[in-house]
Amino acid sequence: MNLNSLLKDIDFEPTAEDMEYLEKETKEIVDTLKKNTKGEVFVGGSFAKDTLMKQKKYDVDIFVRFGSEKEITRDFEKLIGKLKGYKKDKVKGSREYYSIYKNGMARFEIVPVVKVKKPQEAENVTDLSYFHVNYVKRKLKSPKEVRLAKAFFHACGVYGAESYINGFSGYGLECLVIYYGTFEKLIKALEKIKDQEIIDPEKQYKNKAEVLIELNESKLGSPLILVDPTFKERNVLAALNIETFRKLQSSVRKFLANPSKRYFEKREIDVSKLKKISKGQEFLEIELKTDRQEGDIAGTKLKKFSRFLVGELEKSFNIVKEDFEYDDNKTGQVFLVLKSRVEVVKQGPPLKMAKNVKAFKKEHKNTFEKGGKIYCKEKVGLTGKEFVKAWLGKNKAVVKQMSVTNMKV
After folding, report:
1. Which homologous superfamily is 12-115 in?
2. DSSP strand E in 200-239: where?
3. What is the mean pLDDT of the chain?
4. 343-378 has which fold?
């Protein structure tokens, strides 16, 4: 299908019924908050900027601007208590906030922030939300272009600044669409990037060299540096890593070569396809559970453990294919296609540690010395499933320390 025709025909705007419900519930919450606080209440996020895309479950951000941290500590919990008829979850973040809901259709995030006159005065990133909303509402010409970007990036698995995704935040995509003008121009520009690119939409720096000097070094690791239009000392895409960026570029190339609506639709991992490509090899599916807080914390813990486990498997197997899927609750799935190595080399202690060397030789056959250390060659002899079960039996303490409460192979 022709790219222009496709982009003209599709949109991911929420239905009129969905918007009516969200507007009604949001107004009810905002009115209650305003009646019970001297703080300024404002709606933020995608809902406020008209960049909300159609979803099964929506998130609406509502901020309460207090005069100080002291006021937040003193008044925020009492204020939440005034919201009747909602289920409430306290969420840990840079500041604790509440996620409230009546049903599975929408969650309303009630976030306390400190009212600052200038972004430079902000001591917490959430304090900048007020400025982000106003910037996007003032600058964005076509919300549809942002919805296209969000849907595409979400389908690619690169939408979200959470640690288990390391991708593009919603505000980041809004700024990029404002800068490039359209979704099409955005993805074509990103596809061409080879080395680290710096984008300074409001030209707050004289040149790119100045950006690299002035920004904190910890914010310069992303392949794409986007200077926050509202606060020059912040890289909006600091969470983005090179693996996620290359994953996006690959999807963009495929899409541009054969434009189709399916690239905007999130697909579950195709287990049957993985099993098919594992012919002559081994397919492994591992379910992980954690007791940590749903969302970024749980997802990050599960992803970190997944990478650790894959690292253990790589000592005895070649990883042909690896996928990780997180359900936004407390469960993660690891999908692997493995090819067993005939034998592996294990490193032992330095030769000067005679007692340890003797113990190593007693435990292992086929030892040899190299570079001042002792090694051995061993046949693998186990399937991936057997290896994981044996590893789990020996490393229950490690699994517990990494906040994994259950593991099923």
Report:
1. Beta Polymerase, domain 2 (3.30.460.10)
2. 224-226
3. 93
4. Alpha-Beta Plaits (3.30.70)
Report how far residue 203's alpha carbon sits from residue 126's, in angstroms, rounded to the nearest whole number.
Answer: 24
β-pair partners for 283: 337
Structure-token pair, residue 32: 């209650």
Domains 271-342+380-408 and 343-378 share a fold: yes
pLDDT for the residue 138? 97
Cα separation of 222 and 175, whole Å? 16
pLDDT tens digits for range 164-203: 999 999 999 999 999 999 999 999 999 999 989 999 999 9
Tell me the C-alpha to C-alpha distance, in Å, between residue 65 and each of 135, 319, 398, 400: 18, 49, 42, 39
User: Residue 287 gets which letter from DSSP?
Assistant: E
Decide if 173 contacts 189 (C-beta within 8 A).
no
Question: For residues 381 and 123, what is the distance between their CA atoms, to the nearest angstrom?
Answer: 56
Which helix (H) or strand (E) segment holds residue 271: the answer is: helix 271-277
271-342+380-408 topology per CATH: Alpha-Beta Plaits (3.30.70)
Higher-confidence position of 258 and 280:
258
CA distance 153 to 143: 15
Q: Whole-prediction pTM value? A: 0.85
Here the tokens at position 370 are 């190299």
CA 40-129-155 angle, to 5 degrees, is 135
Looking at the DSSP bridge assignments, the partners of residue 159 are: 168
Angle between helix 242-257 and 183-192 (nearest 10): 120
- Which residues partner with 98 through β-bridges? 90, 110
pLDDT reading at 76 higher than 90: yes
Domain 143-264 belongs in CATH node 1.10.1410.30: yes
Beta pairing partners, 112:
64
CA distance 329 to 169: 20
Residue 274: helix, strand or coil by DSSP? Answer: helix
Tell me the average pLDDT across 353-359. 95
